[in-house]
Each structure stands twice: as structure tokens, then as C-alpha cells.
Amino acid sequence: MSILNPSNEVIKDILQKYKTIAVVGLSNNPERTSYMVAEAMQAAGYEIIPVNPSVDKVLGQKAFSSLEEIDKPIDIVNVFRRSEFLPDIAKETVAIGAKVFWAQLGVSNQDAFDYLQQHNVTTVMDRCIKVEHAKFK
Fold first, then answer.
1. Successive 10-residue mean pLDDT values, the chain, 137 residues
2. Cβ(38)–Cβ(46) under 8 Å?
3. Is 26 helix (H, G, I), strand (E, B) or coil?
């Protein structure tokens, strides 16, 4: 099955309904895209949970080494890693019961998409969550 993103209406619903975002690959460097996007989403009222084994805190929030270490429910897993890492992150996403898997602009993987669809996880790939959020403000 080829990668097919949800409709704009579904994306709008996701962004209105779900407010806890685990950001995989979130950098603590303010010049990196992951930081700028997460900062904007945090400013818009979303709870940001950094997932990066190389940092302790980002945007004032404790960072976790993996999704499975997070001790609270996650709504959206937002991924800032290269496409080849998506299958493993998709498996972690399913394991923690997150509702939405979101791969940032330029990031997609057919195997990860198929796996997520088999496990009924709403999947968005190759789209920027900040750009999508701005459409519906």
C-alpha cells in the first residue's frame, strides 16, 4: 500500500484533539529545525516531550532516551530522524500505544507506514507539523 496521508480535515482534528507530542530526535540547538518546530508547538499549547539520548533537557523539558522510557501517555510521536530509522520508531510507537505517528518534511518510509497501518496508528509522513498547525489556527 503506498503512503497516503490523512485528509486536511483529519489532520486538523488530530491537531485540535491531541496535545502531548513526543519529539524523536529533538535537538537542544536552537538553530536546528527540530528545535524551532517543537518550540513553536510548545508556544501553541502542546506538551513537548524530547526523545534524544544525547541531551538531558530541551525547551525546559526532561529528555528521554527512547519512547518506551516515557512514563505518561503520548498522543503524537513526531519524528526528526532519517527515513531509514522509521521502522524501529514505528514499532516503539505501537508498543507505547501512541495514537499518531508523524514524520517530518522529507522523512518517509514505506515499511514503517505499512506497519503502522496494520496496527491502526494514524500516520502522517513528509509533512511539517508546524506548517500543518499554522493552516488551522
1. 93 97 98 98 98 97 98 98 98 98 97 98 98 92
2. no
3. coil
The type of residue at 92 is E
- In angstroms, the Cα distances linking 119 to 45, 48, 54, 136 are 28, 24, 30, 28
Domain that holds residue 49: 8-135
The total of structural domains in the chain comes to 1
β partners of residue 101: 77, 123
What is the pLDDT at residue 77?
98
Sheet (strand 76-79) strand order? 47-51, 20-24, 76-79, 100-103, 122-124
Q: Which three cell numbers stand for residue 112?
A: 514503517
DSSP per position, 43-104: HTTPEEEEE-TT-SEETTEE-BSSGGG--S--SEEEE-S-GGGHHHHHHHHHHHT-SEEEEP
Kindly report the CATH number assigned to the domain that includes residue 53: 3.40.50.720
Flag whether 3 is in a domain. Answer: no
CA gap 135, 37 in Å, rounded: 14
Torsions phi, psi of 22, nearest 5? -90, 125
